[in-house]
Amino acid sequence: MIRVENLHKHFGGFHAVDGASIEIATGSITGLIGPNGAGKSTLFNVIAGVLPPTSGRVTMDGEDITGLPPHDLFHKGLLRTFQIAHEFSSMTVRENLMMVPAGQSGETLWNAWFGRGRVAEEEKALARKADDVLDFLTIDHLTNEKAGNLSGGQKKLLELGRTMMVDAKVVFLDEVGAGVNRTLLNTIGDAIVRLNRERGYTFCVIEHDMDFIGRLCDPVIVMAEGKVLAQGRADQIMQNEAVIEAYLGTGLKNKLKAEGTA
């Protein structure tokens, strides 16, 4: 589905992404891990059109999407969430979801004045879909809660719900576990797996929680210093000495060796 070829993103003399090439297969839940500063979020931002690449190519289903802006990619079914959730804090959870679909009739002044019946019917349909999404995510009890009052984990679920309002094809999730308690992280994980299996969503997930990555993701791609260091199943990655040293540190590497000889 997504192919990234020899991608570079430079900020002056700093090479945040330095010749990375990855593939995200249709129907997969691909994990992207690596130490802080490895270039993971920058890679996401370039793929999702938030940042232009310095060089390289990104394709989606064979179509060159390199450098397309986020709103164009949104219409193609490619969405990206962020480490810090972006909600409309003064609106309810349901209203946040209803805001997502583009091209709503009520967005034009003409329809607001002369097409009120059509606008009302469209809003009812959107409200029903939002309620179905909230039920799927098991947060329907928060339907009328102001989004600004949600916990960090609930906001991450709301962001996931936004992708369901437009039936996304591929979703890039950036640190869904950041600031989220274990119970809600399990709920988020369950939702991702269900969306993948029941609705055919393709995911690419940045996350530091290796238990979460191991449970959900296959394959797992490891980045370090802007490059792809390794790729494979989570259990293979955890045994890779280069990954252990780059991602987990030489201290843990020596500890694992000591445990293995104990």
From TrEMBL:
SMART domains, per the entry: AAA
Family annotation (InterPro entries): AAA+_ATPase, ABC_AA/LPS_Transport, ABC_transporter-like_ATP-bd, ABC_transporter-like_CS, BCA_ABC_TP_C, P-loop_NTPase
Listed transmembrane segments: none
Record's keyword annotation contains Nucleotide-binding: yes
Keyword line: ATP-binding, Nucleotide-binding, Transport
A GO molecular-function annotation: ATP hydrolysis activity
ABC transporter domain residues: 2-250
PROSITE patterns assigned: ABC_TRANSPORTER_1, ABC_TRANSPORTER_2
GO CC terms: plasma membrane
Protein name stated in the entry: Amino acid/amide ABC transporter ATP-binding protein 1 (HAAT family)
